[in-house]
Amino acid sequence: MDVSSIAAAASANSAAQLQQEVSMSVLKKAMDIQEQSAMQLLEALPPVPAAPAGTAGGVIDTWA
User: Fold this and answer.
1) Taking the domains of the chain in order of start, what are their residue ranges?
2) Is the dihedral of CA 31, 33, 36, 37 positive or negative?
3) What is the distance between the alpha carbons of residues 49 and 57, in angstroms, rounded to a whole number?
4) pLDDT digits (tens, 9 = 90+) for 1-51
């Protein structure tokens, strides 16, 4: 192996590592944005009204 091929391999390895780090950074940012969007959607939901006592789902018949 000559010096130029070793330098080219090292440079390619460094470029690949940098590309992987940038890809991970972009992925993390995208996941953060999705998390924020999901939280906004959940916060926008109206509260669930409580069922009045004695209606369907209010009492469980344990003898059935």
Assistant:
1) 1-44
2) negative
3) 13
4) 577 888 888 888 999 999 999 999 999 999 999 999 999 999 999 988 776
H or E segment and range at residue 51 = none
| Residue 16 falls in which region: left (phi positive, over 0), alpha (psi -120 to 50) or beta | alpha
Helices marked H in the chain: 3-44
Q: 31 or 54, which is more confident?
A: 31
Is residue 58 within 8 A of residue 52, CB to CB? The reply is yes
Gap between the Cα atoms of 16 and 22, Å rounded: 10
Question: DSSP character for 49?
Answer: P
Q: How far apart are CA 58 and CA 30, in angstroms?
A: 42
Two tokens, residue 14 = 């460094």
